[in-house]
Amino acid sequence: MSITTEASRTEASFTFRNLIATMTEQLDLSAELKKHFGFDSFKGNQEAIIRNILDGNDTFVLMPTGGGKSLCYQLPALIRPGTAIIISPLIALMKNQVDAMRGYSEENGIAHFLNSSLNKGAINQVREDVLAGRTKLLYVAPESLTKEENVAFLKQVRISFFAVDEAHCISEWGHDFRPEYRRIRPIINEIGNAPVIALTATATPKVQHDIQKNLGMLDAKVFKSSFNRTNLFYEVRPKVNATREIIKILKANSGKSAIIYCLSRKKVEELAEMLVVNGIKALPYHAGLDAATRAKNQDRFLMEDIDVICATIAFGMGIDKPDVRIVIHYDIPKSLEGYYQETGRAGRDGGEGRCITFYSYKDIQKLEKFMQGKPLAEQEIGKQLISETVAYAESAICRRKILLNYFGEKYEEDNCGACDNCLNPREQFEAKDAVLLLLEAVRELKEKFKAEHLVAFLTGKVTASVKAYKHHENELFGKGDEHDDKYWMAVIRQALVAGLISKEIENYGVIKIGEAAADFEAHPHSLMFTKDHEYDEADDEVTPSGGGTTALDTELFAILKNLRKQISARLKLPPFVIFQDPSLEAMATYYPVTMDELQNIPGVGAGKAAKYGKEFLAQIARHVEENEIERPMDMVVKTVANKSKNKIAIIQGIDRKIPLDELAESKGLTMEELIKELESIVYSGTKVNIDYFLEDTMDEDHIEDIFEYFKEAENDEIHIALDELGEDEYSENDVRLVRIKFISELGN
Q: pTM of the entire structure?
């Protein structure tokens, strides 16, 4: 090709783009908005974004949940000639959006999705509508986009543009990394050149850079809306009796829609069951449920048949329920991006939204444990993301300020008035000298190290990293040893928010000198920083089946023990004959004041309640009234049958995770006799956790197979189970032990 021909083509392309731009400028977008969607005006950057897409330019959209991202590609798709390809990660999200678009149009083929849920006939219908020009929006999963037959098909289609929704999935630093998203750009190149719009509700500067680099759109025009959701209230609470606290919150907000996020499917199921038992309309949602059940539970939440969804992070992406009033994190999320997106599902209509997170450092340790065995690079990324979450939870400065800073936005207000830290400010300390020392240390270490290394260096700890770089020989080593790690982490976190230091984008986590440092060092001035929170390490839940509890009213427990002693002296009976300690502990937790409530206490049957209960109820009622105690009303605790001393010893041994064979030997029992005792315990309503023993002695798949068998079985007869499962592969003791686990977890 000659240079002249190439130049003329470039000139023609430039002229064509100018022509499109001129036409776009003349287009009345407000009229198009009204015509297609019935809205009178655009929100925020929507109009500018849409014009940029219509001009044929690559576009990067960073817009918080509820900001109206979908419209940014829906309207230009309806206006531009051809079909827009919308790449989306969730089948449920695609279906919702396709249904919504069809609701706006008389043409049913206006929008389609192409994914693994379609049969051959449905796929043929989609292709027919697309090739006929009836379809303006075609939603595809990234996995579907990479299939050869779909690539071949899309090569025949006039494509208006590609929209990559939930674009943070491209980045390993994003909260929902999906490797298949990394293949999008090569596939786009193969299908044919067209403008690309990438959209996400959550992206730090690091993630934004990753997205643009991977999609080959570093020159794209970036539209960034503020991350500040002014209607949301942020709060972090210590994780002490979280379930009980959640029930209180939901009962105080009866009828309001709420989402509760848990990290494990098991906790989702347990919590949903506990809420239902306590009169709260709730359902579970997680990837372990079949698709029909998930869809049904989601629809019941959207249609307000239920108030609460207990979910893993599988729930909520693209779910357009504007009036969610409460988002609770039972478990701390793996990243601040995940946290921001999940809390962002509250108050999308601009109304009230409460975001409550329960935090315990034990949960952080669990998250770190989950990463073991993963590739080192993945572990390093996960560790950095978790450290940001810890910083958010433990910091006592404005939560809004921390969140916005994380996303590269500065929040200027001193007090947001809508987070727990601003409403209940903690003690401050003068940090001028500490910041000057910190900046000196960052420079001395050549701006090459992360916060943990800097803290070790300042406090004088010879860690493996410090030793490897011989930093313990540096004259600054240990200069800040009058303060502990917690102090220096607080200084680093707040220096980051103040712009005195920053984190490198390419090598995330490495501390650099910030833009505000030069002025501060030239003119040092007072800096008041806030002390971090110190969360007590405490067990999370009340244990209705007996044993210690963190919600125990110790004063009442002492009163009840004294009353029991008086009665036992009067009746000349040992105190445990009247009520055992676990029963008194449960009374001092749940405050029963009626005979019916007392009979729900572990170890208290109707006979014991009638014989001894009257005096105990009177004492509890007096204590509740005198101390103005808010009782955990309707918290039903299943009755636990009386246990022999041997049974109590067995339960205590299991609590201490003594191997069952050793426990049997110590009690002079055979393994079969111990299993029989355990069966008696769980069938009487007591919950025991023998997972530690099963995991050590049985294959994980065998445990799951037996557990799943009992889920479907008509009865729990062992001989029938062995016939079904195969006596050659499973022993009778194994089946009995997993049956104990099954009854304990699902029945007690």
A: 0.59
CA atoms within a 13 Å half-sphere pointing along the CA-CB vector of 184: 34
Q: Which fold would CATH assign to domain 554-626?
A: DNA polymerase; domain 1 (1.10.150)
Among 493, 261, 313, smallest CA distance to 387 is for 493
Which string of DSSP letters, residue by residue, matches 332-360? Answer: --SSHHHHHHHHTTS-TTSS-EEEEEEE-
CA distance 669 to 671: 6
Cα Rg of the chain, angstroms: 31
For domain 232-369, give its CATH number from 3.40.50.300, 3.40.50.10380, 3.40.980.20, 2.60.40.1640.
Answer: 3.40.50.300
Nearest to 528 by CA among 564, 478, 494, 492: 494
What's the pLDDT tens digit per position in 643-675? 445 677 888 888 889 889 888 888 788 888 888
Q: Please name the residues in contact with 730: beta carbons below 8 A apart, sequence gap of 6 or more.
A: 702, 706, 722
Closest alpha carbon to 315 in 337, 336, 289, 347 = 289
532/357 Cα distance (integer angstroms): 16
- Owner of token pair 């992070």: 313
Q: CATH classification of 10-224 is 3.20.20.30, yes or no? A: no
CATH of domain 426-530: 1.10.10.10
CATH architecture of the domain with range 645-747: Orthogonal Bundle (1.10)
Mind listing the pLDDT tens digit for each residue in 78-119?
A: 999 999 999 988 776 777 788 888 888 778 889 998 877 788
Q: Under DSSP, is residue 311 helix (H, G, I), strand (E, B) or coil? A: strand
* Helix locations, 460-525, DSSP H: 464-468, 485-497, 517-522
